[in-house]
TrEMBL record:
Pathway entry: Protein modification; protein glycosylation
Its job: Subunit of the oligosaccharyl transferase (OST) complex that catalyzes the initial transfer of a defined glycan (Glc(3)Man(9)GlcNAc(2) in eukaryotes) from the lipid carrier dolichol-pyrophosphate to an asparagine residue within an Asn-X-Ser/Thr consensus motif in nascent polypeptide chains, the first step in protein N-glycosylation. N-glycosylation occurs cotranslationally and the complex associates with the Sec61 complex at the channel-forming translocon complex that mediates protein translocation across the endoplasmic reticulum (ER). All subunits are required for a maximal enzyme activity.
Gene Ontology CC annotations of this record: oligosaccharyltransferase complex
Lineage: Eukaryota, Viridiplantae, Streptophyta, Embryophyta, Tracheophyta
Official protein name in the record: Dolichyl-diphosphooligosaccharide--protein glycosyltransferase subunit 1
Membrane topology, as annotated: Single-pass type I membrane protein
Location relative to the cell: Endoplasmic reticulum membrane
Pfam families with a match to the protein in the record: Ribophorin_I (PF04597)
Gene Ontology BP terms: protein N-linked glycosylation via asparagine
């Protein structure tokens, strides 16, 4: 059977990769560039830390430059979930932004284990020219609770460590860093003059003329009671049935990654004084799901949990889920969400005749970090030549699964990614070939099964009759 042959074929995936995991090693030392002005805005209002960096780069060398390097201390590099860059083109009101490729890279003689990313410019930067780059990077697991343990009546305080000066392989003529905290409750911060504090913002700088790799460590100690929702492991199974629906099953291992809870938990106190008690804990989570959702369920090891609310409109569905107990620092909850979606919203035919699923990557829970995400797309029986297109690097593999009535099993496309943040909730596609004759396989199986039953019944009657004679 050629479906079997197809399954056995080693399948080669295509990836549209903006980032390539294979680190390129560049033999060239950084071009002779300098940063005329750098502005960095660090947003500490969530445990998913967003950093916006604007760099005005000038080529002071003799030859054109085609890439600009970003440098990160090794501890930060390990916690980077996203690094994106775009170039500002045009002046003032006509300004537009064009996305640029960013790839991890290595440079010889990196001081103190510095890690690099290379931004590829659209056009080489000629001597004397300047370009303005907008960089966004996202850090996870970078707020350290201190004290590490708090009781139910205490607020959560954390440390954030960084540098007052931007780590860079280039000379920076002028730079400023703004740090935004969730509230004005800042216990302490490192002073590096000139600096200024106003409301929820700390301003470091402006600092003039810093040599490459200048470093000036800072610590900010502040209050944050927003939920530190971390899904340690999430497995999302997306099953395509050509009989009209898409069945989604999501297995969550959720944890509160903030300061650990100490002492006993008092539900009475928790419920009677919600604004003082357990302020850093969370009671419910919001899952943003596609519109036209049906057959929703939410259960854990004990059974169905009825305390969930579903709101739907024409653009989205929102499922508010409430675990059996509020989650405090260090506490965990394991649960499963399942739902069905109309197939025609997600399954399409490409011009070359292949079918494809267009679905959203990432995690539906708002403001959540996923340490390890696995998406399993279960294709209909008889599908061939699957290939996945994901806008960032992911680990891809194939499995075969069997459900009742399956003859040859179903191909499962497995996509895996670590350190996933809401920025990764973008569409991905899984293309495959499908022969509609396979849609008849299941009904034929049923018919033959009935026929066999009928035949054995007839045979049984026949024997029975012959005995009575
Ligand atoms: C590199 O390490 C040395 C010694 O530990 C230290 O003095 C220097 O400030 C560090 N530089 C950076 C960029 O971290
Ligand atoms: C749980 O809920 C689902 C959907 O509402 C239902 O089909 C299933 O029978 C329930 N299971 C139990 C054990 O109550
Ligand atoms: C996938 O769906 C998104 C909207 O959800 C749409 O913007 C995008 O163009 C679709 N991609 C393909 C290849 O159909």
């Amino acid at each position: 059977m050629d479906a079997l042959a197809g399954l056995r074929l080693a399948l080669v995936f295509t990836i549209v990769a903006h980032l390539s995991l294979l680190a390129r090693s560049s033999s060239l030392a950084p071009q002779e560039l300098q940063i005329i002005n750098a502005e960095r805005r660090i947003d500490l209002t969530s445990h998913i830390i967003k950093v916006f960096l604007t760099l005005k780069v000038e080529n002071t060398g003799k030859s054109p430059a085609s890439e600009v390097f970003l440098a990160f201390p090794p501890t930060q590099a390990d916690r980077l979930a996203v690094v994106k860059a775009q170039a500002a083109v045009g002046k003032r009101k006509k300004k537009t932004y064009l996305p640029l490729d960013v790839t991890p890279t290595e440079l010889p003689d990196a001081p103190n284990g510095t890690k690099y990313f290379s931004i590829s410019l659209l056009n080489p930067l000629k001597t004397g020219e300047t370009v303005t780059l907008e960089v966004l990077y996202i850090l996870t697991h970078s707020l350290e609770p201190f004290p590490a343990e708090i009781s139910q009546s205490e607020s959560q305080l954390v440390y954030y460590r960084d540098g007052a000066i931007i780590l860079s392989p280039y000379h920076i003529k002028q730079q400023t860093t703004f740090i935004k905290t969730p509230s004005t409750k800042v216990e302490s911060f490192t002073r590096v003059e000139p600096m200024n504090r106003a409301g929820t913002e700390l301003k470091y700088g402006p600092y003039d003329d810093h040599q490459p790799y200048s470093f000036s460590p800072i610590i900010v100690h502040f209050e944050i009671n927003n939920p530190f929702a971390v899904v340690e492991e999430l497995v999302r199974e997306v099953e395509i049935s050509h009989w009209g629906s898409l069945q989604i099953t999501e297995h969550y291992k959720l944890a509160h990654a903030g300061a650990r809870h100490k002492g006993v938990f008092s539900r009475v106190e928790y419920q009677s004084r919600p604004s003082f008690s357990g302020v850093s804990s969370f009671k419910h989570l919001l899952a943003r799901l596609p519109p036209r959702i049906h057959s929703v369920y939410y259960r854990d090891g004990i059974g169905n949990i009825s305390s969930s609310r579903l709101r739907t409109d024409s653009r989205k569905s929102e499922l508010e889920i409430e675990p059996r107990y509020p989650l405090f620092g260090g506490w965990k909850a394991t649960f499963v969400i399942g739902y069905g979606l109309p197939l025609q919203d997600f399954l399409f035919e490409s011009p070359d005749g292949r079918r494809y699923l267009n679905f959203t990557f990432g995690c539906p829970l708002a403001e959540t970090v996923v340490d390890k995400l696995t998406i399993k797309v279960v294709l209909p029986e008889g599908s061939k030549d699957p290939s996945a297109v994901v806008p960032f690097p992911v680990d891809q593999s194939l499995e075969t699964s069997y459900s009742y009535l399956d003859v040859v099993g179903r191909t499962v496309v497995v996509l895996e990614k670590k350190n996933v943040v809401p920025e990764h909730n973008s569409p991905f596609q899984v293309y495959y070939k499908f022969n509609p004759i396979f849609m008849l396989a299941e009904p034929l199986m049923l018919v033959s099964a009935f026929f066999l039953c009928f035949m054995s019944y007839v045979a049984y009657l026949h024997i029975d009759l012959s005995i009575r004679k």
